[in-house]
Amino acid sequence: MEALIGWLWLPLALVTILGWYLSYSASRLDRLHHRAESARAALEVHLVRRAAAAIEAAAVLDPASGLMLAAAASESLAEEQSRNGGGHVVEEVENDLSRALHVTFADPADVAQLRANPLAEDLLDALAAACTRVQLARRFLNDAVAQAQRVRRKRVVRWARLAGRASMPQMVEIDDSVPAGLGDLAPG
Question: How far apart are CA 32 and CA 87, in angstroms?
Fold first, then answer.
């Protein structure tokens, strides 16, 4: 009888350990999904701030450059408003804004001339900071997504369906580089 009781503890211990492991894995996956969602929301906020800073900076540029930059930034803001903070970052629109920034602020010498105006200096500093924050936010997001995807690829997570109905987090691949002319202004 004692041998039978001794053998009953082993399956009970294994079931307890398996239950703890599944619970731990589910909690970790939930935290990673939350982290990825929070990082995505932060990226969207920083993209809006970059677009707003670009519109403000467009006011101190020559008319052609200012119009091009303001149009790309306005399109980015319109896309964000149509999403209402939900959905995915539209990479094409954000890449268009990045291209406009690179064309407008490609030459550090031209940016140095703009900085002679105190108003322009503040606006360019704000734009450079916004571009840098977009870079950081995208890196944090992609790091969180990579970790969540790595955990979701584990067999035990797939077999036990620990992710439930949550969609697989996706990386955001946009050109978030700071234009050469603004690179010297970026904090860091």
Answer: 18
The identity of residue 158, as a single letter, is R
Quick one: tokens of 124?
């360019």
Digit-coded pLDDT (tens) for 26-50: 999 999 999 999 999 999 999 999 9
**Strand segments (E) across the chain:** none
Contact 130, 50 (CB under 8 A): yes
pTM score of the predicted model: 0.85
The 10 Å CB-count burial string (b at 16+, else e) for 141-154 is bbebbebbeebbee
Residue 73 corresponds to which tokens in the numbers above? 């930034």
Q: Any idea which residue has 């094409």 for tokens?
A: 92
Closest by CA to 134, choosing from 80, 78, 66, is 80
Q: Which helix (H) or strand (E) holds 33?
A: helix 2-58
Collapsed DSSP state (helix, strand, coil) of residue 60: coil
**The tokens of 118 are what?**
């105190």
